[in-house]
Amino acid sequence: MKHMAILTHGPETCAAAIAEIGDKANSALAQLEVGSEKNGVTIEGFWVDPPGHQFYLLADAPNAHAVSQLTVELQLFHWNTVDIHAVITVEEARSLIAH
């Protein structure tokens, strides 16, 4: 099942502006592949909106708990609020439309 994790922080906790958080972010990104494999998560895309202070991570995972555990192990929640949503494609959603 696909999950979109939206990680939001503010300028006061931005890895680009705060060296200590930048170090944590670099450490997390360096461990992303190993952590993903450990939790049964396949990262399908990872984007950032720098001025909006948001990251978007699209993952294929057995459940939201696996994605949540990944963000905990990588300590991404230390400076981000993490929202995880189960998502489907628009084409998949079309099958839900009553005819």
Cα distance spanning the termini = 26 Å
CATH class: Alpha Beta
Residues in helix, %: 25-40%
| Secondary-structure element series | EHHEEHEH
Number of strands: 4
* Integer count of domains: 1
Output the CATH topology.
Alpha-Beta Plaits
Number of helices: 4
Q: Compute the gyration radius: what is it?
A: 15 Å
| Uncertain stretches of 5 or more adjacent residues | none
Task: State the fourth-level CATH superfamily.
Answer: Dimeric alpha+beta barrel
Description:
With 99 residues, the protein is of the alpha+beta class. It has one domain: Alpha-Beta Plaits (2-Layer Sandwich), CATH 3.30.70.1060. The protein is 34% helix and 29% strand. It contains 4 helices and 4 strands; from the N terminus they run E-H-H-E-E-H-E-H. It has helices at residues 19-30, 32-38, 64-73, 90-94; strands at residues 2-8, 42-49, 54-60, 81-87. It has a 4-stranded antiparallel β-sheet with strand order 2-3-1-4, with helices on one face. The radius of gyration is 15 Å and the shape is globular. The two termini are 26 Å apart.
